[in-house]
Amino acid sequence: MTRPIVAIVGRPNVGKSSLFNCISKKQIAVVHDQPGVTRDRIYADVEWEDCHFTIVDTGGLDLDPEDDLIDMVQLQVEAALNEASIILFVVDVRTGIMPQDLAVANKLRRTNKPIFLVVNKVDSERFVSDAAEFYQLGLGEPFFISCAHNTGIGELLYEVVVSMPEAEAEAPESPQSIRIAIVGRPNAGKSLLINTILGEERMVVDERPGTTRDAVNISFTYNHVPFELTDTAGMRRKSAIDNELEQATVQRAIRSIRRSDISWLIIDATREVSRQDKAIADYIARQGKACVIPVNKWDLIEKDNSTHPEFVQYIRGQLPQLTYVPLIFVSALTGQRVTNLFDMSLAIHREYSTRVSTHELNNLFIELKTAHQPPRSGNLRPSLKYITQIKIQPPTFLVFARHAKKISASYEAYLINGIRHAFGFHGTPIRVYYRSTDAKRK
After folding, report:
1. How many domains does the chain divide into?
2. How far apart are CA 366 and CA 168, in angstroms?
3. What does the alpha-carbon distance between residue 328 and residue 305 come to, in Å, rounded to a whole number?
4. What is the pLDDT confidence band of residue 237, given thresholds at 50, 70 and 90?
5. Of residues 54 and 169, more confidently modeled
6. Is residue 388 within 8 Å of residue 373, measured between CB atoms?
7. Smallest Cα–Cα separation from 350: which of 397, 396, 290?
8. Could you tell me the residue range of the domain that residue 416 belongs to?
9. Is 119:143 a contact under the CB 8 Å cutoff?
10. Is residue 110 exposed (0-12), middle (13-18) or buried (19+ Cβ within 10 Å)?
């Protein structure tokens, strides 16, 4: 099995070889203050948290080489970029953003590969505020490290390993499945829903062994898209869990939510929304998971023209933390709208994985600020400067602002609603964080 390759790139003298040595735990790369010391690609196999990959050190990426030797170094860098699964883009906090950094960032974005922005030489807290300017590169959340003090590298490697392409690291022949956790209180109809799914002719199913107490993983394909469905035991109130085996069952259900891409929270239409339904909804929201709410046993409800809107209003009122989540009224017994769950999940997964360009975000940001400025808090009014998306799954945004701590919850809701109206994100939570621009650079 071919190991994933992690390439370290950046302009000369930002600390690429030092980072290579820290990760490989070997003094292989020559480290020197003179720019351009590294010319050939240098490889080292790395094992970290039971994950095996190869790290490659490259020469300084100078996009306008002045002599033939530097041009040959650029060819080596290009080769490393072509074969890499993940790219670590190293910059220097002490010099700030240089023109070469902007050029390199533009080049790397065209690779369509996972890129980690690594801000080196953050040797003390006084450099952290300086490092914030690197958000302008539009490459997401920077990782602040110091190779000299060996700090921040563990956190970087953790995220690198999590982002390791599963197609290379685990199963090259299989595309990554969309993972769905089916959760809810007991007797909501989860097992019957699974049985109905298994009976669908256009779904190719492979059920892995498990017991009725375990979370059972079911792999299948719907419309040529692989899914992994986790059928969990019913989650009861904590006070009702009276033995260790059932406690372990609930813990497995919670783990299934954590590792899922999308959770299906099954609501029983014949019963009131319970405290346990609300607790599960709250857990899904806090974990930042995309979600669909199937309202099951809809075939048992007597209906008139007002039944559906009344149910929607009732469930929305009971589960306010999931107002962004679509409701689908289904019957596991008759199969009514069951396949709609997968169509909706496919659409939501696309929204959950969407990244909006910084340019589009800031155009929207200007419109939102112009329409409504943040309200004053005492004598201070927050001043919004800049917004960028720093993560997907869930979509996460970072706002730069003066007096950021004074931004009210109602104004944050206004920003989130504006983002949803412009870009969708149906069925997925949106998270917003703030970075204060009040502190002066030292």
Report:
1. 3
2. 42
3. 17
4. low
5. 54
6. no
7. 290
8. 358-436
9. yes
10. exposed
DSSP string, 131-166: HGGGGGGSS-S-EE-BTTTTBSHHHHHHHHHHTS-H
In this structure, what CATH number is given to the domain that contains residue 311?
3.40.50.300
Q: 203 with 276, same domain?
A: yes
Q: Is residue 182 part of a domain?
A: yes
Neighbours of 291 (CB within 10 A): 27
Q: Amino acid identity, residue 142?
A: P
Q: Is residue 283 a contact partner of residue 291, using CB atoms and an 8 Å limit?
A: no
Distance of CA 170 to the CA centre of its chain: 20
**Are 186 and 155 in the same domain?**
no
Residue 441 lies in a domain: no
Q: Which residues contact 244 (CB under 8 A, 6 or more apart)?
A: none
3-7 mean pLDDT: 85
On whether both 340 and 382 belong to a single domain, the answer is: no
Q: Judge whether 88 lies within some domain.
A: yes
* 3-state SS class at 382: coil
Same domain, 300 and 253: yes
User: How many CA within 13 A on the CB side of residue 278?
Assistant: 11
Buried b (16+ CB within 10 A) or exposed e, 117-142: bbbbbbeeeebebbbbbbbebbbbbb
Pick 435 or 210 by higher pLDDT. Answer: 435
Provide the pLDDT for residue 253: 66
Same-domain status, 276 and 296? yes
Q: Which residue has the tokens 């735990």?
A: 25
In a domain? residue 271: yes
Q: Is 112 left (phi over 0), alpha (psi -120 to 50) or beta?
A: left
Strand (E) or helix (H) holding 222: strand 216-222
Is the model's pLDDT at 70 over the cut of 60?
no
Q: What share of the chain is helix, strand, coil (3-state, %, to 5)?
A: 40, 25, 40
